[in-house]
Amino acid sequence: MNEMTRAHRLGGWLKRRGPRLLGELLLLLVIILAAEWFMTRDAARGTAPAFSAQTVAGESFDLRQFQGQPALIYFWATWCPVCNAEKGTIDTLAEEYPVITVAMQSGEADAVRDHLKEAGVSFPAIADPNGRLSRDYGVTGVPAFFILDSRGDVAFVARGYTTGAGLRLRLMLADLVGF
Question: What fold characterizes domain 46-177?
């Protein structure tokens, strides 16, 4: 079959199936957005809940230090396979953007610090053994991502696997638009 015949057949197929395919893709997008909304419906919105804590490395952290720049708050758990798959992405992002991570119900600081060392990552982490901080943010499952704009407001919330490109895009949008 020559190239002209192949192109002609593809064109005919698109004419017949194009509108239906477009409708199916639109329906899929609506389903994905509805699922994302449902999974994050209890998440903090507006001004991010303020907190101060000590990282597992023993450093003081105050959320106010992120004011004036977009930032990422990442809730994860040592027992979460999806979180473990995203560790490298978060570690790389922490080199480019302000990032604080919260290890939800993963033990005390020593256990979280050991886990990070074993995984070979160095992003800053706060242990949340009882889930108090996670509850303040309305986190009902991990991984959960909160992108803050330069004013400290929650610009984006996502739950579940998220690509590094998706997180960078949201951080750039939070910076550009300034929500």
Answer: Glutaredoxin (3.40.30)
